Amino acid sequence: MSQPLKYKIEATDTSISKLLKEQKFYIDYFQREYRWEEKHIKTLVEDLTNTFLTAFTEGDKRSAVASYQNYYLGPVVFSKNPEDGKKSIIDGQQRITSITLFLIYLNQLQKDKTEKVNISELIFSEKYGEKSFNMTDEDREECLEALFRNGEYTPHEDDSETVVNLINRYDDIQETFPEFIAENCLAHFIDWFTENVVIVEITAYSDDNAYTIFETMNDRGLSLTSTEMLKGYVLSKINDRKKRNEINDLWKNQIQKLNDFSKNADQSFFHSWFRGKYAASIRPGKAGAENQDFENIGSRFHNWFKENHEERFKLITPDDFYTFFKDEFPFYVKWYLKIWKARQSFDATMPHVHYVNQWGIADSLQEPLLLSTIVYGKDEDSLKKKVDLVAKYIETFTVRRSINYKKFGQTAIKYTMFNIIKKIRNNDFELLRANLIEEANDISQKWDAMPLFRLHGMNRKFVKHLLSRISGYVDNLVGKDTNYGTYHHPNGKQFQIEHIWGDKFNEHTDEFDQITDFQTWRNTIGALILIPQGTNQSYKDATYEEKLGHYLKENTYAQSLHCEYYQKNPIFLNNPVVQELQFKPHAQFKKTDIAERTLLVQRLCEKIWSIECN
Hints:
alpha/beta; six-stranded mixed sheet
């Protein structure tokens, strides 16, 4: 007697191509929102691209990809209706949504390439001549359609949490994806991603079975984590029972502090602590190279510690282990959490730590950098100054690269940043400043690229960051109690990027013959400011002369366009930094005015991100 279909459970390993090709998935009501954060998508893209690059050799034919190393992405669980064949996603919606976003981005990247891979059928399915997204959710349709066709989506005020996250995670993919792959081996990577990334597809033919599988997978994980295995090893090295119990209690307390702050923060802490303070090597960027300290800490830090504690940590005797984990372990947990809290909420003693939370580098590099100069036992004020200076260097690096249209994903910069970690490790403040000034001077991307910098569909997030920093800085010059967060992520009404010129080519034909030239100048950084959401909609089509009176009611940077501001604000006029920056009003706003305002932005950036001025 055959088993009823409703009791059947199927599990098979499959590729992204087989999983998604011409499929239709329905998202269960209880998990409709897409909630992946920046760290999730960036980690995924970095893991995928690093795995691919480990196997790729320049000159390989695309057929060679079949023999490249696979990457395991985990299981997904579906409930399939036996009657109509509809498949509902029970577990894995976040990953499948992220894969779909990644495929849309890859499809955009290859549009101008002569060598293309047909991946649209993994994003869309077609029936009776009509295409629809494989992920069925009306809330996402407009956003995904815009991203697929144009690579950008203009958000609406009433967009859902899912749509906002889709836009932000798409931006994160763009920031993280390596230029080397995009320029040299994109088709190889797409082949590898769609055929060599392995997913276990679990299909049940009743909702009850599907949910049982989901609960089993999420509630019964009993395998020890690297943190637990490290603790076991450390305790085994302390032979005095009283001391061993003391360290065991301390360990549980510290791990609880970390995980109260964020899930899996304990593992991120050990990655950052060991990489920032003790790692000496990183895998060379060539095919077949073996993992070194940096990679081994990331994958199995408990094993790395066992192999290196004598040489790197100088831990040999039971008392060495006891003293180190009694004193230094909680000290570095405390500073890791201080830095993390300063990233989330503005701290005037470490402001740049908050800025790089919005425009920084991959956590796998940023967190070790910020911990690298922390020295056990030093006073809090001096350590905060050092952490803030390192964060300022990171932001300087990312802003300068962004102005020059250069990415800073982990793959592109990890060797540079790892060498800086080793260079600044345990520096006192003066040596740290000297080293970071030297590193800043060596950044290839310079501020003089500013006149060529423009707002476009894929850098709106950065332009918002840049204008928020400038607006907060200029406000502070005249004593206003505002900061970066006031403009970038306020609690109330949001700020939006305002084009000083309305989108009216016919009003500028005295200076332009071609609309493309007009749009280029209109999107120049000197022709943009921030104003409250809704305000710009109310007079976006007005002329500059009509807008100017409204700007006088806005932030200082916007007010500085108006001549009356200079007449009524002696604090502004008499400020030596304002004088040095050469602010001036603009009664009209022509090409020459935009050019002058752009050079003002350049001078502001040079001042804001000067390591010497810290």
